[in-house]
Design brief:
alpha/beta; six-stranded parallel β-sheet; 18% strand; globular; hydrolase; Isochorismatase-like_hydrls; Isochorismatase-like_dom; hydrolase activity
């Protein structure tokens, strides 16, 4: 891509962490490997200056409902420095910026909004479609962002849950659009030429 304009899209890669990628994890997202191939393709097209990577960290206040959550998932109730929460090797270098770390499912917040700005064009990919992706997408749309979910660059807890999440996000046009990676990258190339 040439020099970025305020309307150029940002790729937001949600939580490409070992806890979601490792098949032995209780939170492994089937299809992660295939989804990540599309993520890598989109990140290469947009470049590290327009790609942001998030991480979910287990740092929420246990005196809130998060305490019940971690009681239900004790394997995940470890320190944020635990290897479970590191990025997969292939995710290092996708972004020129540090990771956006949040203790919440949704990653739309002051950190992400502060980087992309008001009314940003976002391409969202990552895991899990039915948890951190959907909560990020709907909050960003509520805040006025234009969101395209790269459907083949997302992995869910199960195919059924992924389909349900995509269906739900698809109920919010024109703020939320669902599209495959090749289609979106083709449109970006056309607009750049």
């Amino acid at each position: 891509m040439s020099a970025a304009s305020p309307r150029d899209p940002w790729l937001v890669v949600i939580d490409p962490q070992r806890i979601f990628a490792d098949p032995s994890s209780d939170w492994a997202a089937p299809g992660f490997e295939t989804a990540f191939a599309h993520i890598a393709e989109a990140a290469a097209a947009l470049g590290p200056e327009r790609t942001l990577v998030t991480r979910w960290l287990p740092t929420a206040d246990r005196s809130t409902s998060w305490g019940d959550y971690f009681a239900a998932w004790p394997f995940a109730d470890v320190g944020a420095e635990d290897p479970l929460y590191t990025l997969i090797d292939e995710a290092h270098g996708l972004s020129a910026r540090p990771t956006i770390d949040e203790p919440t499912f949704g990653k739309w917040g002051t950190q992400l909004a502060g980087i992309v700005g008001r009314g940003a064009e976002l391409l969202v990919a990552g895991v899990s479609t039915d948890c951190c992706v959907i909560t990020t997408v709907l909050a960003a749309a509520d805040a006025g962002a234009h969101v395209t979910v790269l459907t083949d660059a997302c992995a869910a807890s199960s195919p059924e849950n992924g389909a349900a999440a995509l269906h739900t996000m698809g109920l919010f046009p024109p703020q939320v659009r669902l599209a495959r990676t090749a289609e979106v990258l083709g449109q970006i190339r056309e607009e750049a030429s």
